[in-house]
Amino acid sequence: MMLIPTHHFRDIERKPEYLQPEKCVPPPHPGPVGTMWFIRDGCGIACAIVTWFLVLYAEFVVLFVMLIPSRDYVYSIVNGVVFNLLAFLALASHCRAMLTDPGAVPKGNATKEFIESLQLKPGQVVYKCPKCCSIKPDRAHHCSVCKRCIRKMDHHCPWVNNCVGENNQKYFVLFTMYIALISLHALIMVGFHFLHCFEEDWTNLLQAYGLTREGTAEARISLHEKKQPPKVSSTECSSFSPPTTVILLILLCFEGLLFLIFTSVMFGTQVHSICTDETGIERLKRKHQPRERRGSWKSVKETFGGDFSPSWLNPFSGPCDPKPLRDRDWVRQAASLSDTDNTETTEEQSEERKDEDSVEVTDE
């Protein structure tokens, strides 16, 4: 249980009436199990559509510009299967991250009856979110886009149009990993494609203009008789014209490099957060809200769903089932004055001593 330094907060009392529960509408009845979660945010929806468009663009260029025109069928089949599998897993992970409840706290549960049912004892506090009128359990934070408090909220990602929280962090990690892999794979294939086609086109060009020893005499006779320049076919490298092919490949290179860097950084950040059991928001508040941390391996297993297995890489298998919140999960322990920082001002200390009989809780 996290110790909360009381001097960091305001408008606080142990008694329910100080939380103004009469302003809270009772929570709605929970929907049926499996109800889809979707955030109606214009920016997030646009970013999600752009994400799908860019993946499908990469799919188009890889298949119709590089693999299908290739004469090496083994190369085309192997790379086509690998790229399509990674792209499918990336899009599936994106859908799961976007349509999974990240761990939203029941909305409007900060009612007088619910607060009284917790039977708070001296030294215990509860936190009400004034924006969604919910009692916030430990490690929950309010998202202004989702308009809900989210358990273990790391950040709100517009690319998945959702918060990254307790229930969907695994899918977000898999999404960033698979996007980084298909970006790297596409860049490698583009590199091989350029090398192969440039070598082949230069060879054909030299032979067509008779710049090789064997073809010099034959090329002179052919050019003299036909009175027209030789044609060099590039259909073996692409079904499109050379300028179109170059433009498509350059755009794919730019997209692949950009997303490789971005998703690799995000993947590393998320893995670090899981291993250290510290979300991005908690990292920013570390100085003000110290807390105990779990072992890194335990946090990893809870995020990915049990002991290590291939299901860790499967976006269709969920993390460990979250335990239902119990009464004690809504309650936190207030820190005593002796536990607070030594840098407190005299004014802060005097304000805290005005009412020593009441235990403080806050509107966060």
Q: What's the gyration radius in Å?
A: 30 Å
What's the total helix number? 9
Structural class: mainly alpha
Main sheet summary: 3 strands, mixed
Quaternary form: single chain
List unreliable stretches of 5+ residues: 1-18, 226-235, 336-362
Mean pLDDT: 76
The counted number of beta strands is 10
Termini separation: 18 Å
Overall morphology: elongated
The helix fraction, in percent, is 40-55%
Strand order of the largest sheet: 1-9-2
Strand content: 5-15%
Q: Write the element-wise H/E pattern from the N-terminal end onward.
A: EHHHEEEEEEEHHHHHEHE
Describe what you observe in this structure:
This protein has a domain at 37-102 and 158-206 and 237-321. Helix content is 46%, strand content 8%. The chain contains 9 helices and 10 strands. It has helices at 42-67, 73-99, 112-117, 169-208, 216-226, 242-276, 280-284, 296-304, 346-352, and strands at residues 3-5, 124-125, 127-129, 134-135, 140-143, 148-151, 155-157, 162-164, 332-335, 362-363. Strands 1-9-2 form a 3-stranded mixed sheet, with no helix packed on it. It has a 3-stranded mixed sheet with strand order 4-3-10, with no helix packed on it. The protein has a two-stranded antiparallel sheet with strand order 5-6.
